[in-house]
Amino acid sequence: MSILVADVHDLKSRLEWGQPGLTIIDVRDRNTYNHGHITGAISIPLDDLASRAKSALHTQRQIYVYGEHDAHAAHAAETLRTAGFTDVSELQGGLTAWITVGGATEGV
């Protein structure tokens, strides 16, 4: 299975063009998520990821995942792939990269 790394520019373009057939998952802890995250991202902390994703999302859904750093995102993506998700991309640079390209955020 190939590792898919997504560029923040690509995700931003998809959202701007109204292609919402995707889910963005923030795997950082809930407190960190509450202080700022990509607009529309759902919070599923890494420890709960496999069980919560399986009950909440279709395994064919396109998923973008990000965490504290790229290694965190890579671990989350591998967790999802092992759980049977087939279209998982790691958002390179996470929230910092997203903010750098002017992506919308929400939080405190």
Automatic annotation (TrEMBL):
Domain Rhodanese: residue ranges: 18-107
Annotated Pfam families: Rhodanese
Stored Gene3D superfamilies: Rhodanese-like domain
Alphabetical list of InterPro entries matching this protein: GlpE_sulfurtransferase, Rhodanese-like_dom, Rhodanese-like_dom_sf
Membrane-spanning intervals of the chain: none
Superkingdom to which the source organism belongs: Bacteria
PANTHER family noted in UniProt: FAD-DEPENDENT OXIDOREDUCTASE, PYRIDINE NUCLEOTIDE-DISULPHIDE OXIDOREDUCTASE
Protein name per UniProt: Rhodanese-like protein
Organism, scientific name: Anabaena cylindrica (strain ATCC 27899 / PCC 7122)
